[in-house]
Specification:
With 556 residues, the chain is of the alpha/beta class. The chain is built from 22 helices and 21 strands.
């Protein structure tokens, strides 16, 4: 192994914890030239991994080669020729894939192709009950619940029953949940023994889904029985056994997970309903699946009617205003939406702390509050705000144990968040919990540090290494991390410090996390910038095109 690494230290770059830069230092020390083909190949793969981290499925060939020039600072013609040769070697060895001018990491091209193939197989009319029978069932649902469905909601119920795959999208207050409940109820009236599965990309979103539908719901990972290193329980060879699969918060679904999900759907037996808000932030992972499926012509119902009780909420009305690019309208007497004007970032941080403490005085608990920030760094970034809020909301106490792990001090009672999927523990990226007990190390008894965290009612144990890699404080989190969750109160800085991050879909996603109150603290200039900035970062994806181009799509 040592001999292999000596010859090509860039093999180490494949190990996530080492990466290109560390491997490059080792290679330099071993005297490997700057324009060696193995170095150029590793750099190309690194740039595509970096692009994946930014949400892209591929990079255009010329853009990738231009990035190479600046990344390695090799701009002369002879070196550029070597870059092109290195790319050809990677393509020839099937380490990368090309589709025309597009250069992919092979697994992402395969994921796009798999989603496109499965979507086309699902987009066919399904045998359905007579329209009069469906209408009668909808009437029964309305009578039994005392709730009247809007015409577009009835259309969604009919569409789910008539086609293999459809999308339900709409903003807050438009009745997505009621529509899902109606779909399930009507299906069960038509077929008593109908099997319905509900899933969502994150633990928090699936918990939410279970609470509002009264049905059992889980993460997509759990539904598919994904176990790293062991593969999946459900796939094309062993599809999910259900009549209806409802997937919520589909804006968070990246192309890799979508490929696994669609692969496990039986196109003959199962109808799929995808639910999401297409105006929210796209997934953290690569692709823009919900947006691409709508663009490709997958049958879609967009709910636009805002229900009366929701229309009286300033959270709902202002979320829709932000989405339309209009200024907020705030009536402080309504008591559910506030904008506190402050310019100095340190002052903004103090106001956020005071607001959080005030809500605790009013009888709310720490789990009812979520501070959101667009960035990690700076006085109003997640790191600084987490330290400040921990000190205020869970101060040190002689009876309360605490421990320093890496840069972070953890204390019993702290609100914490899981940062990556851990299948052994059945906890997933974005899950939030509380530290219930810290068992400090005892060298005499040979006991290492153990931290017990309560997540979704279960106690989960963490070692020091796991805390370092998998946990962070969660008094404040990024808007991306908060997707799929809802809390009574959202507090958020809108500061010029975050000027480049402020965008319409970010503010919209943040506001729509709140059920009862929103408090924005910052400057009118930053707020106006967020509302006006509708330039969502372009993502290189070709999913919509693959679905449209391939033969057999009924809706194209």
């Amino acid at each position: 192994a040592v001999h292999v690494v000596r010859e090509n230290p860039y093999l180490l770059a494949e190990i996530a914890t080492i990466g290109f830069f560390r491997a490059d230092v080792i290679a330099k020390n071993l005297g490997i030239p700057e324009d060696a083909s193995i170095r150029l190949q590793a750099a190309l793969k690194h740039l595509l991994l970096e692009a994946e981290g930014q949400g892209h499925c591929f990079l255009p060939r010329e853009e990738l080669l231009a990035k190479m020039q600046s990344f390695l600072n090799q701009k002369d013609e002879a070196r550029q020729q070597k870059h092109r040769e290195a790319l050809e070697i990677l393509l020839f060895n099937r380490e990368l894939a090309a589709e025309g001018d597009r250069i992919y990491l092979r697994r992402l091209l395969e994921a796009e192709e798999k989603v496109a193939r499965q979507v086309k197989r699902l987009c066919y009319p399904k045998p359905s009950a007579a329209p009069e029978r469906i209408a009668a069932c909808i009437e029964t649902f309305e009578r039994e619940t005392g709730l009247a469905l809007a015409e577009e909601q009835k259309e969604a119920v009919r569409l789910v029953l008539e086609t293999g795959l459809c999308i339900l999208t709409g903003g807050p207050g438009t009745g997505k949940t009621l529509t899902v409940n109606a779909v399930i109820a009507v299906l069960r009236m038509l077929r008593e023994d109908a099997k319905v599965f509900l899933a969502s990309p994150t633990g928090r979103a699936s918990q939410n889904l279970a609470e509002i539908t009264g049905e059992e719901a889980g993460t997509i990972h759990r539904l598919l029985g994904i176990r790293p290193g062991e593969g999946l329980e459900y796939d094309a060879a062993n599809p999910l056994d259900c009549d209806l699969l409802v997937v919520d918060e589909v804006s968070m679904l990246d192309v890799s997970l979508a490929a696994l999900l669609f692969d496990a759907v039986d196109p003959v037996k199962t109808r799929v309903l995808l639910v999401g808000d297409a105006d929210q932030l796209p997934s953290v992972g690569p692709g823009n699946v919900l947006h691409d499926l709508i663009k490709a012509g997958v049958p879609t119902v967009r709910l636009q009617h805002i229900f009366r009780q929701a229309a009286s909420s300033q959270i709902v009305s202002n979320a829709h205003r932000v989405n339309r690019g209009e200024n907020l309208v705030i009536d402080p007497d309504k008591g559910d939406f506030y904008f506190l004007e402050h310019e100095d970032p340190e002052a903004i941080a103090v106001i956020i702390k005071r607001a959080a403490l005030r809500f605790l005085e009013l009888g709310y608990s720490i789990k009812d509050l979520q501070v959101l920030s667009p960035m990690h760094k700076g006085p109003v970034g997640t790191k600084a705000l987490n330290r400040l809020l921990q000190e205020a909301l869970n101060p040190p106490h002689p009876q309360v144990r605490e421990v320093q792990v890496g840069q972070t001090l953890y204390r019993e009672g702290d609100r914490v968040m899981q940062l990556k999927n851990n299948y052994q523990k059945q906890v997933f990226n974005g899950d939030v919990g509380f530290i219930r007990e810290i068992l400090l190390p005892d060298p005499e008894e040979g006991r290492d540090l153990e931290v017990l965290v309560e997540i979704r009612g279960e106690i989960v144990s963490y070692t020091r290494e796991e805390i370092l890699e998998e946990l962070s404080l969660a008094y404040c989190m990024t808007v991306h991390k908060a997707q799929g969750g809802e809390v009574p109160i959202v507090i958020m800085p809108v500061s010029n410090q975050h000027y480049y991050m402020l965008a319409r879909n970010l503010l919209y996603t943040a506001i729509t996390r709140a059920k009862e109150k929103v408090v924005l603290v910052g400057t009118r200039q930053a707020l106006a910038r967020a509302i006006a900035n509708n330039k969502t970062a372009l993502r290189y994806t070709a999913l919509a095109e693959k679905i449209r181009l391939s033969p057999g799509t009924s809706s194209a």
